Amino acid sequence: MTYANLMVNLELGADNHNLIHVAGQLAERFNANVIGIVGCSPMQMPYGDGYINGDLMKDELDRAQAEMLELETEFRTSLQSIAGSLSWRSSAICPSIADYVVGEACIADLLIAKAADHVESESTRHMNNGDVLMQLGRPMMLIPASCRELHLQTMMIAWKDTMESRRAIYDALPMLKKATKVILMEIAALDEQDNIKLQHAVVIEWLARHQIKASSLTIVATDEEAEKLREIATEMNVDLLVAGAYGHSRIREWVAGGMTREILQSQTYCSMLSH
After folding, report:
1. pLDDT band at residue 254 using 50, 70 and 90 as cut-offs
2. Which is deepest, 21, 138, 164, 258, by most CB within 10 Å?
3. Which residues form a coiled coil (predicted)?
4. Cα separation of 57 and 272, whole Å?
5. Could you tell me the residue range of the domain that residue 88 belongs to?
6. CB-CB contact of 121 with 247 (8 Å)
7. At 188, which CATH number?
8. Both 231 and 123 in a single domain?
């Protein structure tokens, strides 16, 4: 099992330099192909707000397509030295960027995107990472905007024995094998600590059968679990956090739990999420 095909989601009007560089580093580590993707929605006009001039819409479309060509050139130039192949996907007329990326991601083993530092909503040039994650069926790696060099020495698994966590740890096996230190961490009530340690022993044995050495860390739960996760990740100098994503969908709205929201927005560490 490996990541033979990486897809990196880029954004119009944003600085994509660091994200492209990190995608290249991952491609080198896994000898992978890289697919660049960018989407843009047509100009939106709320119902009843009046008429949009056709020339204005055409100018907006032409501008978006020109920016996409520039971004493709940056993508190909920056990654021309990697061993794998490069390919490109773009659309300036997708009704939903999230749906467009999810549809194209069927050919990817891992989707790489920039972590948002705020509560997200999709715009004409920006996709909602949570919406993508809920539909993706692939692991998603989120990179802080300031991350230029990818370090994979210390990885922490935010564990609970749930379907989402089991999926996440399995999806992350190739990544975990690159680490020098793996921590299986769980935040749980005080009266659950003994049982949790027994469960961790089983998971650690399973990881060992995949040639991954891991240690266990259990933390007593408080009312501020998201804040506690941030503190632990900082104290441990975590480079990559692996976690299952928890949430639910209401028509077009994706609602994340507090812990998932913390991970989605983290600018401290890279994260790898599965749902």
Report:
1. very low
2. 138
3. 54-81
4. 37
5. 5-143
6. no
7. 3.40.50.620
8. no
